[in-house]
Automatic annotation (TrEMBL):
Pfam families: Glyoxalase
Source species: Micromonospora fiedleri
Domain (VOC) ranges: 4-128
PANTHER family hit by this protein: BLR0126 PROTEIN, BLR2520 PROTEIN
Family annotation (InterPro entries): Glyas_Bleomycin-R_OHBP_Dase (IPR029068), Glyas_Fos-R_dOase_dom (IPR004360), VOC_core (IPR037523)
Annotated protein name in UniProt: VOC family protein
Length: 134
């Protein structure tokens, strides 16, 4: 059997802020989950997304240190249309998300924007652009 991607795990320095950010983005996270050291949800497509606080990670990897520099991963969220990219970017940044790249029309045919979650991970928002009129 070939290994199958089943879970994306992320480390959080402030689980309450992280959970609030992803709830705002529409991920169905159980009530009071932010009080736990490990939060895990199954997304509608079957993939699991999880966050652990630093203490949990260090409980099995005592030498763990946070990465430095720019984000090394990005979670990309498809939006319904280009206007939704703009709306989500505005909503997330108004709620305290760190805007990294405001919405733009990318050369690859998508409306695109990048917000950082509370731990600096890139959260990409995108939607296909309508076909250009000739």
């Amino acid at each position: 059997m070939t290994p199958e991607l089943d879970l994306i795990g992320m480390v959080s320095t402030d689980l309450a802020r992280t959970v609030a950010f992803y709830r705002r983005l529409g991920i169905d996270i159980p009530p009071d989950a932010e009080r736990e050291p490990h939060v895990e949800v199954r997304l509608p497509n079957g993939l699991r997304l999880a966050w652990d606080d630093v203490a949990t990670i260090r409980s099995f990897d005592p030498d763990w240190t946070p990465p430095v520099g720019g984000a090394r991963t990005a979670l990309a969220f498809r939006c319904a249309d280009p206007a939704e990219v703009d709306r989500w970017y505005a909503e997330l940044t108004a709620a305290g998300g760190q805007g990294h790249r405001p919405p733009w029309d990318a050369v690859w045919g998508q409306r695109y924007a990048v917000v950082h979650d509370p731990d600096g991970n890139a959260v990409d928002l995108f939607a296909p652009l309508p076909p250009a009129e000739s």
